Amino acid sequence: MSDRKPAGQFIDAAIDLLRRVRDEEAHTIEAAGTLIADTVRDGGRLFAFGAGHSSLAAQDVVYRAGGLALMNLLAVPGVVGVDVMPATLGSALERVDGLASAVLDSSPLREGDTLVIISLSGRNALPVEMALNARALGVRVIGVTSVAYATETKSRHASGTFLKDHCDIVLDSKIDVGDAELTLDTVPAPFAPASTVVTSALLQAVMATAAATLAERGIEPPLLRSGNVDGGHDWNGRVMEQYGDRIFYRR
Asked: Any idea which of 51-55, 76-80, 123-127, 175-179 has the lowest mean pLDDT?
């Protein structure tokens, strides 16, 4: 490690990862943004799902100032964040076969929609089945994952496959297996995870691409504004009224 203090080392590592995804994932970011723009244009709905800490990036694109109003959270009780007690239950539920089917059967997802599935490892049953079953419904799937896990770990799904194997588009976060950027001789384990920083940036890049693509086509992007700026509530009310049939977080 360099002489820079751990805080600086972590920020440098995060910047390096962001540069990598900017340069190496430019094509897939463009493709994902275009797919989302296509979905909006064609009357489809948008959903995002992530389990555990992967849910943070999903939540960051839902009901977000500066974001697309049409992005909805596909929530699975017990796995969205660490608010469930004990927190370890969420990790256990990710490995339960059949849970994704039950969630999709009771969700508003339908043919022509687009679902963003975020899973750092992409190896557990829940994200793999979510992608498999969503595509069987005619839903387009964008996966956000670390492709490295598919070569350095074993799948926990009966098929032996990973999330990346069941997506229309895969965004690779480039995160190393273990999600820890720093090591020190005085610290017994690697530390300082960067997956949330990188995954959120990837998704915001996709959303920016989608908004710009819609505008290029002569379609006003259904964007939300901050409620803390003058006129923000009125703006959002207009957008939500126009697209109310595709917004589910108000119901």
From this structure: 76-80
The tokens for 213 are: 């693509």
Cα dist from 189 to 8, 47, 91, 245, whole Å: 19, 36, 20, 48
How far apart are the two ends of the chain, measured CA to CA in Å? Answer: 50
Q: Which long-range contacts (CB under 8 A, 24 or more apart) does 38-42 make?
A: 39/112, 39/113, 39/114, 39/140, 40/68, 40/70, 40/210, 40/214, 40/219, 40/221, 40/222, 41/214, 41/217, 41/219, 42/112
Confidence of residue 1 (pLDDT cuts 50, 70, 90): very low
Tokens of 25: 């994932």
204: how many CB neighbours lie within 10 A of its CB? 16
Q: What is the pLDDT of residues 118-165, one digit of tens each?
A: 999 999 999 999 999 999 999 999 999 999 999 999 999 999 999 999
CA triple 108-94-163, angle to 5 deg: 75
Say what the pTM is.
0.94
Which pLDDT belongs to residue 142? 98
Residues in the chain: 251
Please say whether the beta carbons of 41 and 148 come within 8 A. Answer: no
The string of DSSP codes covering 89-132 is HHHHHTT-TTHHHHHHHTS---TT-EEEEE-SS--SHHHHHHHH
Which of 107, 104, 130 minimizes the C-alpha distance to 117?
130
Sign of the torsion angle spanned by Cα atoms 26, 27, 30, 33: negative
Surface-to-core class of residue 120, CB atoms within 10 Å of its CB (0-12 exposed, 13-18 middle, 19+ buried): buried
Q: In this structure, are residues 125 and 95 in contact, taking their beta carbons and an 8 Å threshold?
A: yes
Percent of the chain with pLDDT over 70: 98
